[in-house]
# Entry
Amino acid sequence: LARDLGDNAVRRGKGKQVKALLRSRSESLGEVIVSLERHVAKGRFSDRMGVILRNTGLLAEMFKLEEAEARLLFAAFVCQTYAPFDLFADGLLSRSKSLAHAVSCLMGVDEYVAARICAQDSPLACSGLVAFDRSSRLFMSAVATSNSIDHVIQDAHGSVEAIRAALLGPA
# Structure
């Protein structure tokens, strides 16, 4: 997307151009996420994105998250750091009948599975990793990551124990 518009257009917030291009994309959001994960794995994104992906995996292991839950957690952080993806997720949510429907499209999972992921008693919500606001039409508000997790996910951690120590501090 940044290549199509030029990095400067995205940075300067050319919202109409970005939104128009996003509307014209035919690929599903699930494919965008897979593409993002591949780019991170190949080092095409910043080191920060790689750290977020690795830490998302550590958090998923630590909290025993399912794959779709971990992908949603990753998507929530990507929205905070990658404006075009956030605009795309916002557009998807604003055109969806519900948060579960938008997450279903985003993750490429059945709507029932998405509803379970977004439930108040889901592992993501109960762990405090994510708070869900079904009334919001902005993705970053509808799937809001915890402030305590936000600072931890951006720093490199080599293991579940290291990320646990960063979250909880010294015993």
Notes: The mean pLDDT is 77. Residues 47-63 form the longest helix (17 residues).
